[in-house]
Design a protein that fits this description.
The protein is mainly α. It has a single domain, classed as Zincin-like (2-Layer Sandwich), CATH 3.30.2010.20. Helices cover about 50% and strands about 10% of the residues. Helix 1 packs across helix 5 and helix 4 crosses helix 5. The two termini are about 25 Å apart. The mean pLDDT is about 90.
Length: about 120
Amino acid sequence: MSFTQLITLAVDTVTAVQRRLPAEIRPLALAVPVHYEAAPAADVLAEGFEPDILGLFTGDPHGLETDNPSPPQILLYLESLWDYAEEDPEIFRDEVRLTYLHELGHYLGWDEDDLTERGLD
């Protein structure tokens, strides 16, 4: 599948997830940009993340402001997700959904334990 096709599939999946979010969370989710990238950039890898990372939240969580110059955003690494899904479109959609919700959870201020409790690990 081409990268353009992966983007289309991922955007459709994230949009569907956002529509189903609880009313109190939906506006927060819609305010966080989602970027669809093929793979992590060199600066992400330099921070110690593995090359096959599926997604990443950067910036400050909602309601917490620090001196972090990076605005909140969710990065989804589509080639990693596609490889993880073993090139199966349905598994890819499931992994995009789960990864998006996981990273959104970080934006909402949930740590790894909170995410695990919610089944988003």
